[in-house]
Automatic annotation (TrEMBL):
One of its GO terms (cellular component) is plasma membrane. It comes from Thermosulfidibacter takaii (strain DSM 17441 / JCM 13301 / NBRC 103674 / ABI70S6). Keywords: Membrane, Transmembrane, Transmembrane helix. SUPFAM superfamilies: Multidrug efflux transporter AcrB pore domain, PN1, PN2, PC1 and PC2 subdomains, Multidrug efflux transporter AcrB TolC docking domain, DN and DC subdomains, Multidrug efflux transporter AcrB transmembrane domain. Coiled coil: none annotated. Pfam families: ACR_tran. The chain crosses the membrane at residues 12-29, 348-374, 386-409, 434-458, 470-493, 533-550, 866-882, 888-912, 924-942, 962-983, 995-1021. This is RND family efflux transporter. The keyword Nucleus does not apply. InterPro entries: AcrB_DN_DC_subdom, Acrflvin-R. One of its GO terms (molecular function) is xenobiotic transmembrane transporter activity.
């Protein structure tokens, strides 16, 4: 009893298997989390170091440089970058994909611990952040006080930091919550400079007095035989009035001077360096993040359940979602499921037309759900998500997987109708007869996918899920075809041989269309066999012309996509205040709010220490707006049309230095700053600035670049006080002492913490009134306390205003400036060709270099990996065909279909207007496994005909005559199944549609040419082999 007979005669096992597969598949499909794309960013760790009062240059020299040099020694580091601004430095380390995020974080923490002694004493403890796709917030909330609630934004911020954040962190799947937007309350002791001088006091004395008289000091325990008490000096003030009574000195008549005599004390906002707007209104921003191992949709589901309860807890606060991926993910997945349904229906229709047999077509159709249920169950076991990549693989498989079922069904039908066997025996013997041949056809497609699974880098991260799911679906298709099909075949195929009226109508397609194609190809082959060299020359010329035209398609790493989400990165003129930046922002928001199809938008300006998800290293002049529009199926214009209109409007607003408007996903990786990134490296900031200005000027001439910006400019005003060392020595002052008193006067000195029962403590900051410190000319009259008494600052040195960098950037220890370019939909290579031309004669001083970073660099690396994968796939394919045909020659004949497919692939991209890209290359690799199956059908038939004594011409013409219908049917089914992907019937499919375009174009052309050229090549190899055999 053979394998097939064993389970056909005992159907309970297969029936139980079917029910199990259906149950597990349905449950898995329901439980699998949803996402837009797989997490693909390489591990990145960012270290944030904050030093109050330090300049950007100090942060670069004393913090960034020593840290980045040490972090660069860690194993598997790809690059180290740093951004230094006033008071803050951010050092980012990018690792190879082989390094886990947790291991990278541990190594960075250990390295930092070793070098802490090298860093300035005034820094706050460095903060270490893991940067991944999980760093992108799942939801951004805008919190605003409701009218009549008695709350203001400061109180909302306080509640968000202390209570709402804790509530959100208790929600399952929420890993972190970050609060942003300024309005941090502080107690300000605003000292009047005139009154201070009247009492002969200094600012340091005020700071020391507040520090000494606003604290509780524990003094140990009082213990006796009966009791135990804690002893402490209770000096901490609980109300503002208590602070006013602090004694800061004595007057001329010996009376006490209290704090209220020289200063006003009130709770105000800390001077803001950041702001947040939700839908055009001032708000406090709250980012909710998932864990790196968590999923977007599971986190969203938890938020949907618990967030309404949190809202009820705070009736005075309005919670508004202003940014989320929820809409785009749900829309995209819904579109993809609809596309899968359409692909199945169209494929089954094609099969019905070709087979002209309702029952055979129905049996083929029934096999499809079983294949998918098995695939979904396996995807769940592999912890895969349902995203654009995995569902694209599922759709791609539709046309391919029916081939296995058709082969088995047709052979069972042959045994039943033509050989006259009983239906059960026909099912068993018909399946057993072709089981190995069926598997051979499956593994030729699967085997070319194997290199993609282990190619490494970004390519593997994106394409491994696609190739794995596709391979699983194809293998499952084979399993279903040799188990479920023979089990169901007796029920479906038993009956009368006569066709019904509908089937007779469908047979007209075979009689006229397939019959005409059969005659055409047999006639063309007859001509081809008589003029073999001419036909080979024509094919070679077609291939060469196509190869020459390939650059016209252009190349991208990943194609642009219209997600309905756009970003606006803007920078106002250097030294613009936050208030002025906010005024400009409001004008931009007014323009955005008038756009049709707008759903929601938010805006953030500046950055805050330790709040990385809202952006790091952003100055108060830099902002980011995110706007969500309805999906492209529900608006008349593309996202790029909206971007162009906004860009033109924004450029009319005075005070904006740079503005970049681009689509969400403009770069395939968050670590790529912009599609075009020209990085200039060198030591002198002035030279770098000059070169960057010139590069910026030239890039603006490039057609297709929509906006140009750069990481920094050399136009920030910085006030320097140059100490006269001789004069300072006369007063017994050092530069450190002068700097300390200047910092206290301008920024304010932190004296203590004011604690209100039931609330967090407020920092007590002592400083002069704004009109006595916030102007350069006021600094000259600043009194510095010395051993000889107060002395004006102007007596101790000279004040200068100098130009310096707005930001200081490094990559791999060298100072850099990056010039960014954004595009709409033009291919990166088309842009880069123009950029190379305009930068060709740019002269660089010795020691300065210019390099292409960003997408161009990543594309070069990824395409290099894909070329290796294609070569390896072809080698695997060849050596898998050798034992099948027991020949070293015929596999070359079979694989000749691959270059024929490349012709169609290139023309497909050109005609449809798609760019060559990573998915397109994946399509070419997939083609290599698909198109050889047609060659196998022809060669296999010809070989068997020759063994039966047919002449070479008879064998080849017979192969074409008999195999033309199954070849055209398989190709048509595969092409039709890929149409939803090629036609971009789902949001986000723009990213993967080139794969389907390449596969459709390559398969169509290859199918048409294979029926002629494979027999011609076979005849040439056959003749060569015959001559060698005869001479031997």
């Amino acid at each position: 009893m053979n394998f097939v007979e064993n389970y056909v005669k005992r159907p309970h096992l297969i029936t139980a298997f079917i029910f199990l597969v259906v149950a597990l598949g349905a449950i898995s499909f329901k439980l699998m989390p949803l996402n837009l794309f797989p997490d693909a960013n390489c591990p990145v760790i960012t270290v944030i170091v904050y030093q109050p009062g330090a300049s950007a240059k100090d942060m670069e020299d004393k913090v960034a440089r020593p840290i980045e040099k040490e972090l660069g020694t860690i194993d598997l580091v790809r690059k180290v970058t740093s951004v230094s601004n006033d008071e803050i430095a951010a050092i980012s380390v990018e690792f190879e994909y082989e390094k886990s995020l947790d291991a990278a974080a541990t190594d960075v923490a250990n390295t930092l611990q070793r070098i802490m002694w090298k860093l300035p004493k005034g820094i706050l403890p460095p903060q270490i952040f893991k940067v991944s796709d999980a760093t992108i917030p799942v939801v951004t909330l805008a919190l605003t006080p409701k009218a009549g609630s008695g709350l203001d934004l400061a109180k909302v911020r306080q509640l968000a930091e202390n209570e709402i954040k804790e509530d959100l962190l208790r929600i399952p799947n929420v890993a972190d919550v970050e609060v942003f937007g300024g309005y941090t309350p502080e107690v300000y002791v605003v000292v009047d400079k005139v009154k201070l001088h009247r009492y002969n006091l200094s600012l340091p004395q005020i700071i020391r007095a507040v520090e000494a008289q606003n604290l509780n000091i524990p003094n140990g325990l009082i213990i006796n035989s009966q009791n135990q008490y804690l002893l402490k000096v209770a000096g901490e003030k609980k109300v503002i009035e208590g602070l006013k009574g602090i004694v800061v000195g004595k007057g001329e008549n010996g009376g006490l001077v209290h704090l209220k005599d020289v200063a006003n004390i009130k709770i105000l906002y800390k001077e803001r360096q950041s702001l947040f707007h939700g839908n055009g209104k001032k708000a406090i921003g709250v980012n909710i993040l998932r864990s790196p191992k968590g999923h977007v949709t599971t986190t969203l589901a938890s938020l949907g359940k618990y967030l309404p309860k949190i809202e009820k807890k705070y009736p005075g606060i309005k919670f508004e979602i202003v940014d989320t991926q929820k809409n785009i993910i749900e829309t995209s997945i819904s579109n993809l499921v609809d596309s899968l349904r359409d692909a199945i229906m169209m494929t089954v229709l094609v099969i019905l037309i070709y087979l002209a047999n309702v029952r055979m077509s129905a049996l083929t159709a029934i096999s499809i759900p079983f294949v998918y249920f098995m695939t979904f169950a396996e995807m769940k076991l592999l912890n895969y998500e349902l995203n654009i990549v995995t569902l694209t693989a599922v759709i791609l498989a539709v046309g391919l997987l029916v081939d296995d079922a058709i082969v088995v069904i047709e052979n069972i039908e042959r045994h039943y109708r033509e050989l006259g066997k009983p239906i059960h025996k026909a099912a068993i013997e018909g399946t057993q007869e072709i089981i190995l041949a069926d598997f051979a056809g499956t593994y030729t497609t699967v085997i070319v996918l194997v290199p993609i699974m282990f190619i490494g880098g970004y390519v593997q991260k994106i394409l491994r899920p696609l190739s794995t799911v596709l391979a699983l679906a194809l293998l499952n298709s084979f399993v279903i075809s040799v188990t479920v099909i023979p089990l169901f075949a007796p029920s479906f195929l038993r009956g009368k041989k006569e066709k019904n009226r509908f089937e007779k109508i469908l047979e007209l397609f075979d009689a006229y269309v397939i019959g005409s194609a059969r005659k055409f190809y047999v006639g063309l082959l007859d001509v081809g066999l008589r003029h073999r060299l001419l036909f080979i020359l024509v094919a070679f010329l077609l291939l060469m012309v196509s190869r020459k035209l390939m650059p016209l398609t252009g190349r991208d790493l990943m194609p642009p996509m219209d997600t309905g989400i756009l970003k606006v990165h803007f920078e106002t003129d250097t030294d613009t205040s936050l208030e002025e930046t906010e005024r400009i922002l409001r004008k931009m928001e007014d323009i955005i709010a008038k756009q049709d199809g707008l759903i929601m938008f938010d805006a953030m300006v500046g950055s805050e220490p330790g709040v990385i998800s809202f952006g790091k290293g952003r100055t108060p002049q830099m902002g980011l707006i995110t706007a969500h529009f309805v999906d492209r199926f529900h608006r008349k214009e593309s996202l790029w049309d909206i971007e162009d209109r906004l860009r033109k409007a924004f450029k009319q607003i005075p005070g904006i230095k740079y503005v970049d408007v681009y689509d969400f996903g403009a770069t395939p990786l968050s670590s790529i700053a912009a599609p075009i990134d020209i990085m200039i490296s060198g030591d002198d900031p002035k030279v770098l600035d000059k070169l960057a200005r010139e590069v910026e000027r030239r890039l603006l001439k490039v057609r297709g670049i929509t906006s140009v910006s750069r990481t920094w400019t050399l136009d920030k005003n910085e006030v320097h006080f140059v100490v006269d060392m001789h004069k300072a020595a006369v007063y017994g002052l050092s530069p450190v002492e002068i700097s300390s008193q200047m910092a206290a006067a301008v920024k304010g000195g932190v004296a203590s913490v004011f604690r209100i029962p039931g609330e967090d403590g407020y920092t007590i900051r002592v400083r002069y009134a704004s009109d006595q410190r916030d102007y350069v000319n006021k600094l000259k009259t600043l009194m510095i306390q010395s051993s000889l008494g107060p002395v004006p600052l102007r007596e101790l040195g000279q004040i200068k205003v100098v130009k310096t960098q707005t930001t200081i950037t490094h990559q791999n220890y060298r100072p850099t400036v990056d010039v960014y370019g954004y595009r709409s939909t033009m291919a990166i290579t088309h842009l880069q060709r123009q950029i190379d031309r305009v930068l060709k004669d740019l002269k660089l001083p010795p020691g300065y270099t210019i390099s292409k970073e960003g997408e161009v660099k990543k594309m070069k690396e990824s395409f290099g990996r894909l070329v290796k994968a294609l070569i390896f796939a072809i080698i695997l394919l060849y050596f898998s065909l050798v034992p099948t045909f027991k020949s070293w020659i015929h596999p070359f004949t079979i694989m000749a279909a691959i270059p024929l497919a490349m012709i169609g692939a290139i023309w497909g991209l050109l005609i449809v207007g798609r760019h060559g890209c990573m998915p397109a290359f994946m399509g070419m690799i997939l083609l290599a496994g698909i198109v050889v199956n047609n060659s196998i059908l022809l060669i296999d038939f010809a070989e068997k005909a020759l063994e039966k004594g047919a002449s070479l011409r008879e064998a080849l013409e017979g192969a074409v005559k008999i195999r033309v219908r199954p070849i055209l049917m398989t190709a048509s089914a595969t092409i039709v199944g890929m149409i939803p992907i090629a036609a971009q019937w789902a949001v986000g499919l723009e990213r993967l549609s080139p794969l389907a375009v390449v596969a459709i174009g390559g398969l169509a052309v290859s199918t048409l040419l294979t029926l002629v050229y494979i027999p011609i090549l076979y005849s040439i190899f056959h003749d060569v082999k015959a001559k060698f055999t005869k001479s031997a």
